[in-house]
Amino acid sequence: MVKYPIKKTVMNQTRTSVSNRGMDLEQAINETNQYYIDNDLAYIYKKPIPIQVVKVDYERRSAAKISEAYYKVPSTTDYNGLYKGRYIDFEAKETRSKTSFPLKNIHEHQVTHLSNVIRHGGIGFVIVHFTVLGRSFLLDASHLVVFYERAKSGRKSIELSDFEALGHELKEAYVKRLDYLSVIDRVYIKRED
Amino acid sequence: MVKYPIKKTVMNQTRTSVSNRGMDLEQAINETNQYYIDNDLAYIYKKPIPIQVVKVDYERRSAAKISEAYYKVPSTTDYNGLYKGRYIDFEAKETRSKTSFPLKNIHEHQVTHLSNVIRHGGIGFVIVHFTVLGRSFLLDASHLVVFYERAKSGRKSIELSDFEALGHELKEAYVKRLDYLSVIDRVYIKRED
Questions:
Q1: Within an 8 Å CB–CB cutoff, is residue A155 touching chain B?
Q2: Residue B38 neighbours by CB distance under 10 Å
Q3: The model's pTM
Q4: What ipTM describes this predicted complex?
Q5: Residue A137's closest CA among A105, A187, A178?
Q6: Cβ pairs A/B, distance under 8 A
Q7: Which three-class secondary structure state does DSSP give residue B191?
Q8: Which of A84, B49, B119, B124 is the right S-S partner for B114, CB 3.0 to 4.6 Å?
Q9: How far apart are CA A12 and CA A6, in angstroms?
């Protein structure tokens, strides 16, 4: 069994109750997805966090209590679903860096997962939010795979200028907080018409 | 927070160690999916089980221990992924009944989920295994939705004869234990050519 420190998940759980300067990426994406669902534009949802259950207490019949469990290394991504009949799959990450996104924030299994997604005809990408800059980018998984391979022998991060050149900036708005489907329309679906 | 008795999950965890007569449906599907992945035919995987984490101990830095958590009512299905560019999504269920599949085995959220999947252009279905009969069927989500609606005021199960008439029987084999993609090819994809 793989046990794993859970920095990211802990951040997610406490983030809203601690400092909340600027955009909360997960919250923005969840609200955006809810908007898409409410308006029946797309059906994209968050996957459960993978947890390895070790011990369960059955004292109360109504609700079995898990008394020992561990976060597992995620083998897939945070979000997937459907848009206009296409499979959509992505991971969302934040960084406080002003210049680059450190690739240690993404697990190798997740890169393999996204690589599988695009090879089998799905749309796979990452959304990276530079919290200090207040800028967000959508980067296709094909680019992520290249940067990840390069990191094995070279630079271990993706520079902001790479996001500017190869990615698509997402502007935050009041409704549709982070309307990434407008990029999907423009870059992935319109291209195929 | 929704707490929920976990009959199904407990069954899954103990099933291999208890009686193992006949086919273990989850095991058969997992092996089939692995075959598809190994041969790069499709990329279909099991989603994590949704768990509500209440308390985490950080005593050891290397592995945060979850000391209180509960199984949540599943809002989606067990499996999803990609086949020939199409989104695939399904739930797998067993019943010991020889005559019908009780709909209490499926949660309303899961029916809504499958309904969303097919409305947005995905392929959604259930695989039901009649353990005593040793027979398995793939039933499209559109039929499940109808039976589920009917159950609110009428019969609360799907009869074996309904599976025979509206579903597609899956034959178990040595490799590709339960080759459901052959049905997808024949029924969903070929039809669209």
A1: no
A2: 8
A3: 0.85
A4: 0.82
A5: A178
A6: 130
A7: helix
A8: B124
A9: 10
